[in-house]
Amino acid sequence: TQLLEQSPQFLSIQEGENLTVYCNSSSVFSSLQWYRQEPGEGPVLLVTVVTGGEVKKLKRLTFQFGDARKDSSLHITAAQPGDTGLYLCAGARGAQKLVFGQGTRLTINP
Amino acid sequence: ETGVTQTPRHLVMGMTNKKSLKCEQHLGHNAMYWYKQSAKKPLELMFVYSLEERVENNSVPSRFSPECPNSSHLFLHLHTLQPEDSALYLCASSQEGTSRTQYFGPGTRLLVL
Q1: Residue A1, CA distances (Å) to A25, A44, A58, A60, B29 in order
Q2: Which of A11, A21, A93, B86 is deepest in the core (most CB within 10 A)?
Q3: How far is residue A14's CA from residue A90's CA, in Å, rounded to a whole number?
Q4: Alpha-carbon distance A55 to nearest alpha carbon in chain B (angstroms)
């Protein structure tokens, strides 16, 4: 059983389009992180959200933490080829422990 | 550059070899982690060290042996591995007591022949 479900698992769209990636769980998390990972590299932190209902913006990326702190979404506006990568969400539960989703592999075609 | 370095970046080893992976963090964090990332699987937490003590071992086979000599360094000693152990091994660090945001190294791509 996957504690954090990400959807879609794969997404291929054209440059300039908008997209949303979802991270869902039946469990409550104290915080949630989004990472982007490029081939051959480790995940790089994009944002941490800690408050239910919180919205954070990072240029064309908008992150939202659900009111009940069980889910999150990542919306990208006017996607660019540089946005291509594996997007991972991770929820914090207990001391030191992060639970990762299986990731969304995003491809932006020029 | 995330402040977490890993060496080597790539490693090919036979099933009878002994090798070690090294991780170093320059962020002043007090917790360090080893993860395994295989194709089409979520990141798997292997070991957690907090204040240089191992606080978690997620049923990892004994052919993987971690070592944390101080809060900045973490090793993963490998011996008699199996081909299914081929994966990307990621090290991460965090500061205990915060939102537990983890900062990852670039990983070691391991191939076991």
Answers
A1: 11, 26, 32, 33, 31
A2: A21
A3: 27
A4: 16
Tokens of B44: 């798997």
Query: For residue A94, what pLDDT is reported?
Result: 65
A86-95, A99-108, B9-18: lowest mean pLDDT where? Answer: A86-95
Q: What angle do CA A93, B39, A102 make, to 5 degrees?
A: 30
- Measured between alpha carbons, how far is A13 from A83 in angstroms, rounded to an integer? 11
B52: pLDDT strictly greater than 80:
no
Q: Does A32 touch chain B (CB under 8 A)?
A: no
Residue from B108, B112, B40 nearest B76 by CA: B108
Under the banding of pLDDT at 50, 70 and 90, the label for residue A24 is: very high
Instruction: State the DSSP string of B9-47.
Output: SEEEE-TT-EEEEEEEE-S--SEEEEEEE-TTS--EEEE
